Every structure is written in structure tokens, then in C-alpha cells.
């Protein structure tokens, strides 16, 4: 027997929900029931508990994605599962298409070494603060970068403080003396040794990262690998990633060849030579490089955040490694695994056409302004009119808020968000901040009008949208 789903909605969305379900022609049976409220997004668990008198023989209930309240308790009270659907009705077909596989992004197999490149210039407290920020964004190992001809008198103190704080630590230097000092102070990893400096590994227990003795010389790397294998010591190898136009393509070939020669060794890739030295948004660069790592079984990367445009490189790498792991485990493309790397654009930015928004506007009977976007532009409407533009300044003369500063300010903020979303191709939802993926920390998205980290199990009070202009 086919599953029977009860869809709960509001008056304004009821007709559209019927139409979408008819177009879907789903294999399940369904009943659409509107609860007597105009806007479906204002539905709460308590409201459902009070108003729903019949479950129509359904096997489960689907409520709007923005429905607030404790659905787990509601499910127990009603005796059948109550679940949130997508936030937009137009996403229902995709929602049901993806319901069978919800990617688990909690897993990954790539370690992120996050380098503090200016560690000698920071005091110990400064190093600890940077390390805590890196760890919050996903770093597994804190790499202390030593600078050429720059004293680092507090190297041992920094390593001790980091270890006391529960961090794994690596020391990054081409000077063997720095590596010996760091290893004796308790560093877990040393970057980097080659065949002529392997004597360092005899002095300390730290795990070395091996590089070619001369740039691109994989034979020297092979000899270093054989030496370390003869000692039965753990190690990683790094053939070195070069920047674009300075050997990038050849360096990718080196990683592939290293994996062919050594199927079982642990490999590291220093991604900073691409993220730092390419003026392009780093989320896409990280996605591509972590995809290469996923294919070649490279399970460690060295990431840096020196350039201002690369300020989110660690968080992006963390998201990329989770997406690539999930895709590889599912033997699938890295699509529909998560949108955290899609900071600027979205897969389906405009769920409704202008014609559909106009149809919705015809049902509005109050003076509160609604704002939506379509591929055609920005639309703002209430019972008194429907206005469209691609520039918010064109809309101001039609809004009649010149004597209501608070409402004018609110509409200005919302229309600015709508314009940005329309220009970039992002989802816009009134009274909510735009979703910038892993490019922004959740707390950075807070504003006086919205909170992207709000608990969906708690009731969300009506936003400014539903407040009438003064004097109405």
C-alpha cells in the first residue's frame, strides 16, 4: 500500500501546493489541509496541536520548512511522524527526490594542517588565539611556520602551550636546527625533511614530512621514503604543489606519480600555493584540490590564511573534505552533498516566476509589505499594489514610508538583501539573512532583524514584515 502523507499549509499557499503535487504525480497518496492561517510560514507546533482535528488516515505529516516548535513532542501527541519539508514549495520535487539519501557530512579522512605563517612575530597568547580560531574552523594540526633568518626564541614555549591546550602541533622550517628544537619540545610533526636531512629523524620522535631534495626530483623522494621505511618510522610525503604558470600542471602529475610509485604511503598536499597565489574565490579552489586529494588518497593538506582573500581557507577545506568523502563513499558526483561551498550562487535561486508571485499577491488583504525575487527582478507588494524593479531606489517613491523612519529603514535593509540575492543568483527569504555557506560563521550572520542560528524547535515571533506602517 502506498504511503499517505498529510501536507499542512496556509490559505495563500494551498492552491499552489495542490498544483505542485499534481505536477509531481507522486507514487505516494496525499491530502492537503490548510489550518486556517494565511501564511504557512507562521505555523507552529502548538498551533497544529490546537487546530488539527483529523489526520485523514495519513502515515506521516509534512509541515512547512519554517514551522517553529517541537515536532518530536507533537509527533508523540498525534501518534504519527511530523516532519519539516522544504522552506519553498517549489523545492518539493527535489525534497522527495533526495529524501532517500541524506548525506552524512560528519565524516572525513583528510587532516588539515593549518599554518600560522607569522608565528615568530606573535607572542604565545597570540599563537593560542590563532590556533583556537583554526580549530574552530576544522584544523586538526596547528603548524608553526618558522621564517628565514628570523629568531623564534619562544618556539618551545609556544609548542608547550599548544600541547597543554590539547592541540597537535607541527613545526615548519627548512632549517634542521629549528626542526630538532621543535621535535625536542614535543612537536608531533616536522615539515620538512629530505634525503640529506633525515638525520633529524634520529634526534626526535616527531613524524616527518618528506619532500624532494631538489624541486621536482621524485627519485630523491623515493630514496627518502625507502630510508624511512627501513627505520619502520611513520612519515608523510609531499611532492610540492606549484602555483599556476609556475609548474602547476606538472606538480599535479607528480602527485599522481607519487601515488603510483607508493600506493600505501601517506601523502600531504600544500594547497596554499594555489589558494594564496590565485586571485579567485578560494572555496572553488579548495573544492577542486580536495577532490584531487580524494581521488588520489591524499589524507593531509597544509592550508594557510595569509592573503585577505584566503581568510576562510581552513573552513572551506573542512567543508570540502566532508563533501568529497560523502561523494566518494556514495560513488557519486560531489553534487547535492551540501551547499556549504556555494557562497555566491545557488542551485535554484528563483523558486517562483514573476507571474506566480503576482498570483500570490492577489490574495494579500493587509498593508504589510511582502518582498520576493524572481529571475525578472525584485518584487514588493501589499494589498495596495505590486511594484517591481531591479534597483531598490526605483521602488522608494511607491512605498509611502517617507514619514515612517523605522519602516523605511527595515524595507531598505530587506530590499538591499533582495537586490544582492537577485544579482548573484541566491535565495532570498524576507526577514532572514542571506546564506553565504561556509564563507561566514553563523554568528556573523546575525542582525537585529534576523538570526540565522535560531533554534527551529523554538517559536519564532513574527518579524517586522507583519508589522503595519505607523498610522495604518
UniProtKB/TrEMBL annotation:
Domain of life, per lineage: Bacteria
Protein's name according to its UniProt entry: DUF6513 domain-containing protein
Domain Pterin-binding: 93-358
InterPro entries (UniProt xref): Dihydropteroate_synth-like_sf, DUF6513, Pterin-binding_dom
Region named Disordered: 439-472
Pfam family, one: DUF6513
Amino acid at each position: 500500500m502506498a504511503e499517505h502523507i498529510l501536507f499542512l499549509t496556509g490559505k495563500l499557499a494551498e492552491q499552489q501546493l495542490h498544483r505542485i503535487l499534481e505536477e509531481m504525480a507522486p507514487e505516494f497518496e496525499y491530502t492537503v489541509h490548510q489550518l486556517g492561517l494565511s501564511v504557512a510560514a507562521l505555523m507552529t507546533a502548538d498551533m497544529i496541536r490546537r487546530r488539527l482535528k483529523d489526520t485523514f488516515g495519513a502515515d506521516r505529516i509534512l509541515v512547512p520548512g519554517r514551522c517553529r516548535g517541537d515536532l518530536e513532542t507533537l509527533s508523540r501527541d498525534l501518534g504519527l511522524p511530523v516532519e519539516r519539508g522544504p522552506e519553498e514549495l517549489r523545492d518539493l520535487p527535489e525534497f522527495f527526490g533526495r529524501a532517500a539519501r541524506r548525506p552524512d557530512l560528519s565524516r572525513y579522512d583528510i587532516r588539515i594542517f593549518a599554518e600560522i605563517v607569522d608565528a615568530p612575530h606573535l607572542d604565545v597568547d597570540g599563537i593560542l588565539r590563532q590556533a583556537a580560531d583554526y580549530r574552530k574552523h576544522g584544523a586538526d594540526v596547528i603548524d608553526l611556520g618558522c621564517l628565514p633568518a628570523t629568531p623564534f626564541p619562544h618556539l618551545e614555549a609556544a609548542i608547550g602551550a599548544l600541547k597543554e591546550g590539547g592541540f597537535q602541533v607541527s613545526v615548519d622550517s627548512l632549517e634542521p636546527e629549528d626542526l630538532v628544537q621543535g621535535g625536542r619540545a614535543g612537536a608531533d610533526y616536522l615539515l620538512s625533511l629530505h634525503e640529506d636531512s633525515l638525520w633529524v629523524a634520529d634526534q626526535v620522535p616527531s613524524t616527518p614530512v618528506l619532500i624532494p631534495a631538489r624541486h621536482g626530483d621524485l627519485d630523491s623522494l623515493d630514496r627518502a621514503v625507502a630510508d624511512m621505511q627501513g627505520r619502520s618510522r611513520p612519515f608523510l610525503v609531499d611532492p610540492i604543489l606549484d602555483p599556476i604558470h609556475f609548474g602547476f600542471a606538472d606538480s599535479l602529475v607528480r602527485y599522481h606519480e607519487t601515488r603510483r610509485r607508493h600506493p600505501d604511503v601517506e601523502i600531504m598536499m600544500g594547497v596554499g600555493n594555489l589558494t594564496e597565489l590565485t586571485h579567485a574565490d578560494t572555496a572553488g579552489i579548495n573544492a577542486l584540490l580536495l577532490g584531487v586529494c580524494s581521488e588520489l588518497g591524499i589524507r593531509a593538506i597544509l592550508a594557510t590564511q595569509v592573503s585577505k582573500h584566503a581568510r576562510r581557507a581552513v573552513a572551506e577545506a573542512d567543508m570540502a573534505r566532508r563533501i568529497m568523502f560523502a561523494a566518494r563513499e556514495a560513488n557519486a558526483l560531489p553534487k547535492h552533498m551540501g551547499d556549504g561551498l556555494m557562497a555566491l550562487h545557488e542551485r535554484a535561486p528563483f523558486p517562483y516566476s514573476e507571474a506566480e508571485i503576482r498570483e500570490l499577491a492577489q490574495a494579500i488583504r493587509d498593508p504589510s509589505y511582502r518582498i520576493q525575487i524572481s529571475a525578472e527582478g525584485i518584487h514588493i507588494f501589499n494589498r495596495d499594489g505590486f511594484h517591481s524593479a531591479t534597483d531598490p531606489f526605483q521602488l522608494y517613491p511607491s512605498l509611502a514610508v517617507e514619514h515612517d523612519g523605522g519602516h523605511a529603514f527595515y524595507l531598505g535593509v530587506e530590499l538591499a538583501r533582495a537586490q544582492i540575492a537577485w544579482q548573484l543568483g541566491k535565495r532570498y527569504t524576507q526577514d532572514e539573512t542571506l546564506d553565504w555557506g561556509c564563507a561566514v560563521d553563523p554568528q556573523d550572520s546575525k542582525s537585529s532583524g534576523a538570526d540565522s542560528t535560531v533554534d527551529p524547535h523554538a517559536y519564532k515571533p513574527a518579524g517586522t514584515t507583519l508589522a503595519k506602517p505607523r498610522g495604518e
